[in-house]
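Good morning N.,

You mentioned wanting to compare the apo and holo forms, so I went ahead and generated the holo version with FE2/S2 (inorganic) cluster. This is what I fed in:
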Amino acid sequence: MTHIVIVGAGECGARAAFALREKGFDGDVTLIGAEPHHPYERPPLSKDGLAGAEPPKYVAAPERYEEVGITVLTGAMAEAIDRGRKTVHLSGGRSIGYDRLLLATGARPRTFPGVSEGAARIRMLRTHADALAIRAALAPGRRLAVVGGGFIGLELAATARKLGAEVVVVEGLPRVLSRAVPEEIAAIVAERHRAAGVEIVCGARIAAIEDGGDAARVLFADGGSLAADLVVVGIGAVPNTDLAEAAGLTIDNGIAVDETLRTSDPDILAAGDCCSFPLSHCGGRRVRLEAWRNAQDQGTLAAANLMGGAERIASVPWFWSDQYELTLQIAGLADGAAATVRRAMDDGAFILFHLDGDGRLIAASGIGPGNAVARDIRLAEMLIAAGSRPDPAALASPETKLKKLLAA
Amino acid sequence: MSANWVEVCAADEIDEEDVIRFDHEGRTFAVYRSPEDEYFATDGLCTHEQIHLADGLVMDDIIECPKHNGRFNYKTGQAKGAPVCVNLKTYPVKVEAGSVFIAIS
Ligand SMILES: Cc1cc2nc3c(=O)[nH]c(=O)nc-3n(C[C@H](O)[C@H](O)[C@H](O)COP(=O)(O)OP(=O)(O)OC[C@H]3O[C@@H](n4cnc5c(N)ncnc54)[C@H](O)[C@@H]3O)c2cc1C
Ligand code: FES
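and this is what came out, ligand included:
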């Protein structure tokens, strides 16, 4: 019987396992995960879920796996792949043979140079265990320093304020969210944080971060310093490629796959945060995404292709972030945009549409209270997928329904 | 058990292939008008997180949640895949004298 083995029991691995069954695969499926839990959702960890959810929010109830015939090995680290023998070696000495293998190993937080792993007052946020440790250190009056003004750091800052902690965010670049978000939106986010009492320091040059036992300290290159009860470092993530690299697979900012998610070994696929792939909407440019829906979409696609299909990646990158009452949603990748069109909506919400030199819609970024921008961002995503060149005046006018543009 | 019919709105207040939110006695519903000009009703909140589906997008017989794009068939309430796995409850709907009514049990 055909045996499909999935290494990495996160959003992507779990989705792939269930999708195999939904698509009628009747061989064996084994899902191997290093963490002690069944697959759970990470997005809540920096949002409301930080407020102490136990157990974590599972991708699927643990008993569902057994019901559909998925063997889950938790607390099991895949340590080596023997491609000749088609075998995965696990921690503890166990080995598992595969016919096809999916690597869904995800990413891990980038570490700050010189910070030792055991430092109790300097932490990172990726796992449920991380969230519990951070939660335990936050209380009214406690001081949290977040290093890095990216999505995870800012979401954590908002949640920590809700819990009553004093929060300072330290960013090295001139503004927060500079990697993925247009300046106008980043400015609104920063302003909202300031209104909530979060101090934001941009353009900071950090020399070191120290755990002094009774307090942690962020030391600046100019000689200044900042003390906090807890420092959380949120300076991006790096893909988990060690296993693939040791097995001789091609690595290029992640495990390199083609548009069908195949690695340089046709019996091994990779998907989710760990892989880089050619994105057809961006002229085949190789990208790596760290996004929840991408992990799901690629997990589903991987399942089809593990069963012998050759389906190509077609989905448009999509991301959201929640901070206070604001939700930000982004479809597509805005870099390379030649023009931007703004559409104002109710309650201060707005969407920026990004067009390339030929007038093709390549991305849309929106922000507003609650789900104010959701529907139009979703329609924008479909316009992007269709490769359409909408009339900029129609995009800018809130009276024009985007659904009409899609039908046109 | 006799149905408790509640008036929602005038039939033309819902666009074709669209949805509105309807709150009644502390409960919230989503009421739909299909592309075929039929009316349907479901519970108002997504079964993944407590999000109002009426902010979502209606496409054919699918309502897509605005938060994480979970999908349901609003005619049957069936969850159509990740991240939603719990179906939506549906409610009978009738149109009388130009108004939409739903039967709340
Ligand atoms: C705090 C936080 C908030 C987020 N918020 C959002 C958000 O608002 N919106 C959004 O779009 N995205 C968000 N994300 C990103 C999203 O969670 C990720 O894109 C998604 O989890 C990627 O799924 P994955 O399965 O590829 O990887 P992961 O979720 O990282 O899962 C990989 C799993 O593989 C395991 N593993 C790795 N190597 C091995 C091995 N050798 N053997 C066994 N197991 C192994 C890891 O332990 C891990 O459990 C957030 C992420 C975090 C951390
Ligand atoms: S709240 Fe509806 S899909 Fe998550």
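Chain B has a mean pLDDT of 94.

Happy to go through it together on a call whenever suits you.

Best,
F.
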